[in-house]
Amino acid sequence: MSAAADPLAEAIADRVVERVLARLPALPPERISYGVDEAAVVLGIGRTLLYDLIRRGVVDSTMIAGRRVIPVEELRRLAREGAA
């Protein structure tokens, strides 16, 4: 009899998976914007270059509570089209 067909083995495996999943942190809600440092990491560029692109008007950003953020849609556009 194979281990996959053994009900006891399946029950143990299910319990192990439940215990592991219970220890994982909950996934955060889907992000709608990123701070400059996070956005630079997502894009694979330096924060200085990203600030330069913002200053030149190539990347749209906004200030929220004193923090500059870039919408996810803008990051996707930049990754798709690149910067001139």
Mean pLDDT reading: 87
CA-based shape? elongated
**Main pleated sheet:** 3 strands, antiparallel
- Proportion in β-strands: 5-15%
Q: State the distance separating the first and last CA atoms.
A: 63 Å
Low confidence ranges: none
Integer-rounded radius of gyration: 22 Å
Helix content: 40-55%
Number of strands: 3
Class derived from helix and strand content: alpha+beta
**How many helix segments?**
4
Element-by-element helix/strand order: HEHHEEH
Strand order of the largest sheet: 1-3-2
Describe this entry's structure for a reader:
Helix 2 (36-43) packs across helix 3 (47-55). This protein is an alpha+beta fold and 84 residues long. Strands 1-3-2 form a three-stranded antiparallel β-sheet. Strand 2 and strand 3 (67-71) form a beta hairpin. The protein has a domain at 33-81. The protein is built from four helices and three strands, in the order αβααββα. The protein is elongated, with a radius of gyration of 22 Å. The model has no long low-confidence stretch (mean pLDDT 87). It starts with 6 loop residues before the first helix and ends with a helix.
Question: What descriptive keywords fit this protein?
Answer:
84 residues; 52% helix; 4 helices; alpha+beta
Please describe the topology of this protein.
Elements: H1 7-23, E1 33-35, H2 36-43, H3 47-55, E2 62-64, E3 67-71, H4 72-81
Antiparallel strand pairs: 1-3, 2-3
What's the gist of this structure?
This protein is an alpha+beta fold. Helix content is 52%, strand content 13%. The protein has helices spanning 7-23, 36-43, 47-55, 72-81, and strands at 33-35, 62-64, 67-71.
